[in-house]
Every structure is written in C-alpha cells, then in structure tokens.
Amino acid sequence: MDPLFPALTAARGEALRFGDRSLTYPELASVAGSLALRLRDAGRVAVWATPSLETAVAVVAALLAGVPAVPLNPKSGARELAHIVSDSAPSLVLTEPGAELPPALGGLDRLDVDVRDTTGTPAAAGTEPDDPESPALIVYTSGTTGPPKGAVLPRRAIAATLDALEDAWQWTADDVLVHGLPLFHVHGLILGALGPLRRGGSVRHLGRFTTEGVARELGAGATMLFGVPTMYHRIAEALPDDPELAKALAGARLLVSGSAALPVHDHERIAAATGRRVIERYGMTETLMNTSVRADGEPRAGAVGVPLPGVELRLVDEANDEIAADGPEAVGEIQVRGPNLFTEYLNRPDATASAFAPGGWFRTGDMAVRDADGYVRIVGRKATDLIKSGGYKIGAGEIENALLEHEGVREAAVTGEPDPDLGERIVAWVVPADPQAPPSAEELADHVASGLAPHKRPRVVRYLEALPRNDMGKIMKRSLPGS
Ligand code: MCA
Ligand code: AMP
Predict the structure, then answer these.
(1) Rounded distance, CA 123 to CA 366, Å?
(2) Mean pLDDT of the chain
(3) Nearest residue CA, atom 15 of ligand 1?
(4) For the segment 155-184, what is each residue's pLDDT rounded down to a tens digit?
(5) CATH for 277-381?
(6) Which of 28, 55, 274, 354 could be a cystine partner for 249, CB 3.0 to 4.6 Å?
(7) Taking Cα atoms as reference points, which of 98, 109, 105, 123 lies closest to residue 35?
C-alpha cells in the first residue's frame, strides 16, 4: 500500500501547531521518524491523547512504524481505563513529558515523546507496512450496553476516507485547518490531524474550543473549520456580539460540522450573520466517513449530503429489504459498504458478526430518508439507549451500571433529552436506596465522571420511588414521566 503520509518527507511548510508550539514537515518527519524506529517492536501502543503536539507525533510515529495505536481520553476514569487497557493490552503508553498518569496505567511502560528531538532519521515513508488491512488505530466507542468496544481501523480505511474527503471538499495542501476537537476520537484525530498531514497541509489545534480561538485562527490564514454541532451552536450564540468572528467565518473556505445533527436554527443563524453555509458530513467510528455535502454541491440544512466516492449506501426496512423509494415517508436504516469500514471489534467476534447484515453491509443503526436527488437526511436512531451529547456517543447501559455501583442507588435508568447546547443531555432516573437520604445529583455526577469520563456524567438527576416496569420486569423507559 502507498504510504499514509506521502507528503511527510516532501512538504516544507508548517505541519502542526498547538498554541505557540509547532512543527514543520521536515521537523515532523525527523521527530516521528526517530520515534517510529523506537516503536518497531512495541506490538501495540496506547497514546495518552491530550490535545498536544506530542499526541499527533505519537500517532504519526506509530503509523510509520506499523504499530497499532490506542488513543486514550486523558479524562477517562479508573473503570473505563482499566477496561480499555486490559482489552487492548498495549505494551507501553506514549505521553507528553510531565503528564501525570493514573494508577490504571501503572502496569505499562511509559515513553515520553520529545518533540524537540529532531536529530533523528527523517521518516522513511517506505518503512510503513505494505498490508492495507494491517490495523492502524483502535478507537473505543460506546454501545447500548456494556463497556466500550475497540473498533479496529485498518490503514486502508484511513487512506480511503481521507482521499474521499479530498475529493468531496477539494481539500489540498494549501488548506489550513483549525479545530478544538479531542484527539481520542475519529473526528479530531483522523479527520482533524491525520487529514491535513495526508494532504501536506497544516492544522492549528486550539487546545480547547473557544469562539475567540476560531476567530483568531480563521482571521489569520486558516481556511477550514471542523466542529461538532455544540461548537457551531456556541458560534451561533456568539455571532451577534462578535463582528470579528462573523468576519473570520465569512472568509473561510469551508465550515464543516459532524458527529451529530446540526439543528436548522443554528445553520440559519450562522448563514444570516456570515453569509456562509456550514456543510455537514456523516460518519461513525466503525465506518469513518459515509456521506458529505460536497464543496461543489448545494449546501442544504438538515441534510448530510451524498455518499462519498467508494461508499455504497442503502436504506433498509425492518425485514432488511432495500428501500428504493425516496421522500419523507421512506424511512429506513442506513447500511454502508466500502473501503472506509473497520475490520472488527477487538476481542468481540460476536459483536462484529451482528454488526453486519448479509452481503457485508454494516448496520449503522441510524434512520434516514433521501431527497429525490440522493441527499441523505438522518431522522433518528434505532436504539433509544444511545445518547449523543456534545458529539460524544454515550451508552445508557454503561452509565446505569456505574450508577448501580453507588451505594446510595437501588435502581437506575438513563435517557437522553433534547438540549439546545449539547443536542442531548444525559438524564439519570434514580430510585435511592434510602428515600430519606438520596445521594445528591453532584455526587452521582462525580461518581460517573471519575469512573467513566466527565462527558458521560448525568446533567440532570430525577428521583423516583420505583422505575416503571412491564410484566416481565423490564424497565419501560418510554413511560418515565416527561420522557
Ligand atoms: C464538569 N467537569 C467535570 C465535572 N463537571 N469534571 C469532573 N467531574 C465533574 N463532575 C469538567 C469537564 O471535564 C470539563 O473540563 C468542564 O468541566 C466542562 O465540561 P463539559 O460541560 O462536559 O464540557 P464542555 O466544555 O461543555 O464540552 C463541550 C464540547 C465537548 C467542547 C463540545 O462536548 C467536545 O469536545 N465534544 C467533541 C466530541 C467529539 O469529538 N466527538 C466525536 C466522536 P475542562 O473544561 O477542563 O475540559 S464521533 C466521531 O468521531 C464520528 C466518526 C463522527 O461522525 O465524527
Ligand atoms: P460515533 O459512534 O461516536 O462515531 O458516532 C457516530 C454517530 O454519530 C452516527 O451513527 C450518527 O448517529 C451520528 N452522526 C455523525 N455525524 C452526523 C451528522 N452529520 N448528522 C447526524 N448524526 C451524525
């Protein structure tokens, strides 16, 4: 297979910038090249994925060495980290110098990434493995029940998705991308960091998302912005009082939203204030990118565009039969096939098998309709137990299990409810062990944040005397008051 980063040793300009620290292509080739040599025999590595230069260098080095990398959310709690580490069994953890690692990583060797070590061999792109199916990244993603599953992403999928986006977005080496996305998920890591590097362009990471950072970078030469809908919502809120932000957005080449649906109201507010239309693309950890509004296509609020080159997409009914019709009544589950797909869930042949329909079609669980010209509109999700909050996918079962471990909780159910900022917010319905002394909402939020991750914490806790159950004893979430 051709190298993942053909521009690495050829490009001369800036590759990565995080705050006031940056690396040019020759520097990145040298730093990542020397680190790759040290990783050759590492087997599999974890990356402590802080929003830093070190994370980007660590992942590029692992890819050059042909060593699968497992990005870790540095805010993950003890329970989540312990699961990921025992499931993926990395030999060492790559981290920025000085980072304090939690006890759950205590058993791993630690390798501090030195981004100033440019004395090494420039990356020999030829050292990358030839096999397009060899695993490149293992990205953990939540399901409806149980702990997160590791989606194994081969080199072929990364190359295919980034090249399809090159075509759809007319993405070139001249593009400068700005974003503040986390680097432990597909959006921020594969699209937002590896994407520019495959093109020979550059990325400026904000460290953390702020509208000021977006305005500053788009006002200083950045051409593209990637974000989740929560970020565009915050931009829409800030625009009326921030003419600099409006000017900066107006000057961008492409504003792209994904990971969840961008509400039409936010689309319209941004268009009214800037004259620019945000375009949406639709993807998934297991499939990378499936559809997008094209740069040369018609932006359409509420639609995620057309299938990307190489991606086959169909809608199916309950019986798994293809729906050929279009229009708002022809709702079906999206299934996809193509070189963009993952290979398996690590150590989960059962889950892998049930994720595919006959013919190798991946069942996304997303429900959609199509406009007459093929534009896809996502209208819902098959599983009510999956919540999208701030662009993060969160399984209700995982939070319920964590809540049930709290001594003050007798029963728990978790649902998502609409939230103007987060899209959905997590609501915990709790039957306290002692109705006279229920655990406080803050205590339960802290319990989930420290065991799993802060973005999985309930934003609202509602107390009940009993959960509604059917005759079989199954919790009937649809009968929860107000849900
Ligand atoms: C608050 N915090 C707490 C607690 N309460 N920490 C511990 N315990 C608590 N009880 C902290 C948080 O850690 C955070 O810290 C701060 O308070 C604010 O928290 P929160 O309100 O949750 O965060 P936010 O700033 O409102 O986050 C909004 C966000 C974020 C920035 C939009 O949701 C985000 O980055 N989303 C991106 C998700 C994403 O990339 N998804 C892609 C997956 P601190 O301030 O220090 O941070 S989907 C994907 O990859 C597919 C392929 C696709 O299609 O893209
Ligand atoms: P994740 O599993 O975290 O990778 O999230 C994938 C899910 O995010 C998809 O199955 C969709 O439900 C959702 N998603 C991603 N992009 C969009 C979008 N542009 N519009 C609506 N939903 C989206």
Answers:
(1) 40
(2) 95
(3) 454
(4) 999 999 999 999 999 999 999 999 999 999
(5) 2.30.38.10
(6) 274
(7) 123
